[in-house]
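Working notes for the structural subgroup meeting. M.R. asked for a predicted model of this chain before we commit to crystallization trials. I am recording the input and output together here so anyone reviewing the notebook later can reproduce the run.

Input as submitted:
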Amino acid sequence: MFFTRLARSNRMAQWSPIRFASSATTSPNKITVSFLAKSAVLCSVAGVSLAAIVPDDIIDPLLPSGADAFDLIENGMHAPHQEWDHRAWNKTFDHQSIRRGYQVYREVCAACHSMDLISWRNLVGVSHTEAEVKEMAAEYEYEDGPNDQGEMFKRPGKLSDRFPAAYPNEEAARAANGGAYPPDLSCIVKARHGEEDYIFALLLGYTEPPPGISIRDGLHFNRYFPGGAISMARALYDEVVDYEDGTPNNASQLAKDVTTFLTWASYPEHDERKKMGMKSIAIMGILFGLSIWYKRFKWSPIKTRQIVYKAPKVRDV
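Returned structure, recorded in token form:
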């Protein structure tokens, strides 16, 4: 049996192919590089062929359009970031600034822009006292009714009334502003990208149009407004509003205060939300510490116990 197997192995070795030094196989790395090179050439040829066949109107939407971001006239400049005090996690609104901002809105902005979602009572305890708000609301007349005779009548404003609108309807607003509709400012900060940074930059961003840019009559150039041409003329200038508290009334201070007021109008829950967040963090911290103590109290007997193995005694037989 042993000699039979030996003979078979000798016979197979006799007919096995002999490899010489010159017959070495090709390296696998060379095959991979060659395959990748051929694939790259084929892909390039296919791409050039498709570009020559497919129309441009199909290829253009597929190309990246990041260069559009550099078109400042079309998209407007990016508003620079300002250091707002209320942005800090432990800071509230500057309520004196809200009071001054309301004065700017009332004397300047309210001529064209309305705030339909804000009531007089929202100012109580935020920027004014209840008596002050009642006095301001009574300066306006609101239509109410019907009365016992079925007729509408005028009455002084009260705390539950909304801020008075600048125009009776949208058509009247457009007719008075050359076809442009002044947006409502109740949530204007929340509705714009950049929020208060954008509003602040827009109010102070009026300049002369650059060379080569023409603005038609009735429009004004603002580098932060998309398109550059805005219907609203510049409204804030130095000393256009006299503050009650004697704060310097330059244009940047006016813009800062009215922006703070509009930010409060968009986020009236801002201060209360932060207070609730700090209370929740404090309560959760206490509960977390108690849970760790309770866990250690319950598991310490189990984690500190020792298990001892005692071998049974074997009796000698």
